[in-house]
Amino acid sequence: MPAINEYNPLEFFVNVWIVIMTMWSPELTGRTGPRYIAIADALASDIEAGRLGAGDQLPTHRALADSLGVTVGTITRAYAEAARRGLVGGEVGRGTYVRGQPDRGNALFAMSRKAEHRPNTPLIADMRHNFAPRLAQDDSINRAMTAIAAENIEALLAYQTHEGMREHRAAGAEWVAMGGVAAEPERLLVTCGGQHGTAVAFNTLLEPGDTLLTEALTYPGVRTLARMQRLRIQGVAMDSEGLIPEAFEAACRQGSPRALYCMPTMQNPTGTMMPVERRRRIADIAERHGVAIIEDDVYGYLIDNAPPPLSTFAPTQGYYLTSLSKCIAPGLRIGYLVVPSGQSDRFLPAMQATVWMASPILAEIARRLIADGSAHRMAEARRQEARARQNLARHALGALGWRANPVGLHGWLRLSDPWRADDFAIAAAAKGAPVTPIGAFAVTRTKEQAVRICLGAASDRACLARALGELAGLLVAAPEPYLSVV
């Protein structure tokens, strides 16, 4: 028998093979600082990005050490650091396993470990959150609520049908028509906002184990929903015009997916806008392969003369989602899900199981705002504010990798070497201007280094300009570890 700690080539190669073929291996390229911290950071990034889920087994200390070419002690320290952060646990006979994301928040909202060490950093603007900007007080909602309170509201306080009252669905049909979707009220369901509409669509159209296609970079909430429903999520390649048709066709042929979730208009996080002809091609592929298209159009209200929604080109496979929460008020949790003719009843069990019905009182407020034109006016005001804020972003970051729609409330900042997305996010948080790194959106590993910057949550344009100035200053400087190199 070999002596303890004696090098065993066979054991070494077996351990490496196990890690490569069946287990997690961290991406350490570009990570600075102590090796054990880099491994723990990589583990956190993979959990946040959904590449590792709760209960996933991690390699043994020896196997991962051999794979990475480090000592067993380094892996022991890395796992101990991950355990300190609440990322992993260990049991006798089970080894080390993923606990999941820390209790303090998900990938989109959790601060990085290093940023948390600076609790006294004054916050200039939190640019992680994709909120609509607050505008001058508009009393339209107050008037609607006062009018409702003065009437007999017994019906609004009672149980209603799962899909919503007909007058509320008719108002929704009027609203989505302004976005290019012509639909009878019978094709609409009133939802509790866009996220709820997405959950209802997933629950109805997909079964556990089904494959869901998304853009390679997608809204983190979708990954959370997919994980909760035990779906297999697969990213499809994108370019500057959004989803690539050839990549979508290949995914349809190879994996038998059931649905595609996408944002053709003002894509989150990149802000790309899919051209009309590409929408036609994507819809044709989906129709031929029987793949449902779940189109999220919550930012469509920002665009004047936007292309027709993708779902309108797929009459039998297109499902359209929108919400008033982004364009009117986040507390007005009302959205609309438009389904193909004759399919509404399929979605009623999911509505019943999740909320029974969207709040009739909120739906009535929405109906009145749509009917008297207030909703359109408020959306237009936010569109103008978004344009002004994008001008500030373009002035500060336009020559530094900024990419965004001229009226978008978020944009995509590509980073140049030696910046890594996680490091930039940590540095930005330390400056009082936190942003979201690419790992929160990536469905699969990517070498691209970028961050999403949201412009709406800043209290005013002056705060936004100051925060953008801090980010611009970071971009022209090197990360801290490099500044000390002579």
UniProtKB/TrEMBL annotation:
Keywords: DNA-binding, Pyridoxal phosphate, Transcription, Transcription regulation. This is Putative HTH-type transcriptional regulator. PROSITE patterns: HTH_GNTR (PS50949). It comes from Hypericibacter terrae. In the C-terminal section; belongs to the class-I pyridoxal-phosphate-dependent aminotransferase family. Residues 33-101 form the HTH gntR-type domain. InterPro entries: Aminotransferase_I/II_large (IPR004839), HTH_trans_reg/aminotransferase (IPR051446), PyrdxlP-dep_Trfase (IPR015424), PyrdxlP-dep_Trfase_major (IPR015421), Tscrpt_reg_HTH_GntR (IPR000524), WH-like_DNA-bd_sf (IPR036388), WH_DNA-bd_sf (IPR036390). CDD domains: AAT_like (cd00609), WHTH_GntR (cd07377).
